[in-house]
Amino acid sequence: MDLSFIIVSNYSGLDTLKHEYGFKKTFKNLEEVKQELHLFVKNYNNIRIYESLKYLTPKETYDAEKKAA
Fold first, then answer.
1. Does any domain span residue 23?
2. How many Å apart are CA 57 and CA 22, to the nearest integer?
3. Helix, strand, coil share of the chain (percent; to 5)
C-alpha cells in the first residue's frame, strides 16, 4: 500500500481519521486496518471537497498548484 500521497492540511486529516474510524470501529487484524486506512486516504484526497480549498479536493488543489508552477 502506497501512503506517500497523503495530503493532510493543518492535521485535519488526522482528526477526521480519528473520529471516523478510530472511535467507531474495532479491527480484526492488521490487514483490515491497512484496507480501511487505504480507503480513507483515497477518499480524503480524491473525493472529499473542502471549503478551505474552494470546494476542491486536496488532489485537485495539489494538481492545480503543480501545473501553475
1. yes
2. 23
3. 60, 5, 35
Q: How far apart are CA 7 and CA 9, in angstroms?
A: 6
User: How many CB atoms lie under 10 A from the CB of residue 28?
Assistant: 7
DSSP 20: I
Give the chain's domain count.
1
- Condensed to tens digits (0 to 9), the pLDDT of residues 32-64 reads 888 988 888 888 889 988 898 899 998 999 899
The torsion angles phi and psi of 56, rounded to 5 degrees, stand at: -115, 165
Range of the domain at 38: 12-68
* Cα(44)–Cα(5) distance, integer angstroms: 11
pTM of the complete model = 0.65
End-to-end C-alpha distance for the chain, whole angstroms: 29
